[in-house]
Amino acid sequence: MVAPEVIWLSILNATVCTAAPVLMVMLAIERIGAAMTAQTGMIGPLSTIVLAAWLLGEAITASMAAGTALVLAGIYLFTRAGRRG
Question: Does residue 22 sit in the same domain as residue 41?
């Protein structure tokens, strides 16, 4: 038998950590557009990298920096292409 705490934590995870963020992204796309939402969404991974280094003492490796730069460059290029077309 599954403990009631596990069921409630699963429901909380499904709503707060899954459904609510998806809903908020869809609302953001509707209000500010896909390009701006993608740019704003990059705050999450960037802040995770910075906080991991600051609070947990994790090293920021060259591959992490290169991957982050690649993603940012891709968002920049697609945003520019979207504005022209």
Answer: no
Q: Total domain count for the chain?
A: 2
Encoded tokens for 5: 């705490």
DSSP string, 35-77: HHHHHHHTHHHHHHHHHHHHHH-----HHHHHHHHHHHHHHHH
Distance (Å, rounded) from C-alpha 76 to C-alpha 29? 17
For residue range 65-83, what is the model confidence (pLDDT) as tens digits?
999 899 888 878 877 776 6
Structure tokens at 22: 């998806």
Check whether 54 has a pLDDT greater than 80.
Answer: yes
Q: Which amino acid is at 39?
A: Q
